[in-house]
Structure formats: C-alpha cells, structure tokens
Amino acid sequence: MKTLLIMRHGKSSWKDPDLPDRERPLAKRGIKDSRRMGLFIQEKELIPQRILCSSAKRAVQTAQLFCETCGCPDTVEVLDELYMAEAEMYIRALQTLPDELERVMIIGHNPGLEFLLQMLSGELVSLPTTVVAHLTLPVQRWSELNEHTEGTLIEVWKPKELPEEIIEQEKELRKEAKAAEKEVKGKKEKKEKKEEKKGKKKDKKNE
Question: Has 58 been labeled as part of a binding site?
C-alpha cells in the first residue's frame, strides 16, 4: 500500500501581466496557505518522503514553503514535464519512483490534478489552490500504478478549513521571520553607514 498526497500550487500573483505563465510567483495568500498546509501535514504525521513538483515558479515556491514548515527540505524533485501536465504524465512520473518510498506528494496544476484524482479514486473533487488530497493506493511497487488503479480517497484538506492553532502558529512564524529580516536589514544599513563614514574620512585625508 502506497500513500499519495496531491497538492495544487498556492494562489499565484497576476500583478505583472507581462510575465510568462511559468514565471508567475505566489501571491501573499499563496505564501501563507503553503506554509500553513506544511504545518498541518506535519501535525498529521504525513510528511512526504519525496515531492514531485512542476517547474512553474508558483509550484516550486509552494514546495519550498511547504517544506520549510513541514520539515522535508531535501525531498523536492522539480520536473519540467509536470508543468500543466495531464493526468497520465503524473502517473508516468510516479511509476519511476523507487519502491522504498511509501509516501509521496505531487505539486502541480489543474485540470491535470483533478483528472488524476478522479482517475485514481473514482471521485470528482474540486481542487482549489493549496488544497491537499490524501489517497491510499493498492500497489506494492510504484511501477504497478496505472490509470486503472483503484485507490481510496481518505480526505481533502483546504487552507480555509485548517484548525485555528495551525493558522496562529503560521502567524507566529511569520512574525519571527519579519523580525529576523528587520534585524538583518538593520545590521546591513549600520555596516553601510560605517563604510560611508570611513570613506568620507579617507577623502578628507587625501584633500
């Protein structure tokens, strides 16, 4: 029995209309939701041993933020072929995985992910941004997985429905990150002022 977590990338930004679709980054909401989902999956003890991720910037950022809070920093495999992939392409990517991996996550795009979920579970489920679907698959080897595999959909988790403690935990982490960023910025500015002062003294000596 294998476990598959299907995650759609976080909410992306449309601020720059000239950016190619593949280069669009996450919006603020996408950043928050990705971090929150990482905390939640860690709490559920479903940390993936490998993450197969689309090469789109919004998907890669989702994976990075998810891993920061979930605790799986070295498990992401970015694949160009998963960018806007169809369901069959996700299955082909999964078939190549080593059999010692019991729990795997895919981060990608609709409509391919919704078709993949329907194909493997027989259930038609909407996957808004940053949603995670938890499936079990009746295979011992990933190479046995195919479009006829009859898996079981265990649960679907949406960012808006996560427990309040997860939301508060993410807010606290965000505050800590901002404080650390402010401290680094302050040190940098202090160093620059010091260097500027030294430069002025040197110029006066040379006059």
Answer: yes
**Same domain assignment for residues 202 and 180:** yes
Instruction: For helices 87-95 and 112-121, give the axis angle rounded to 10 degrees.
Output: 70
Q: Are residues 175 and 207 in the same domain?
A: yes
Residue-wise pLDDT for 131-164, tens only, equals 999 999 999 999 999 999 999 999 999 999 999 9
Owning domain of residue 176: 163-207
Regarding whether 86 and 49 lie in a shared domain, the answer is yes
**How much is the pTM?**
0.85
- What is the spatial distance between Cα 55 and Cα 62, in angstroms, rounded to a whole number? 11
Alpha carbon separation from 4 to 21, 46, 138, 196, 197 (Å, rounded): 27, 10, 11, 55, 58
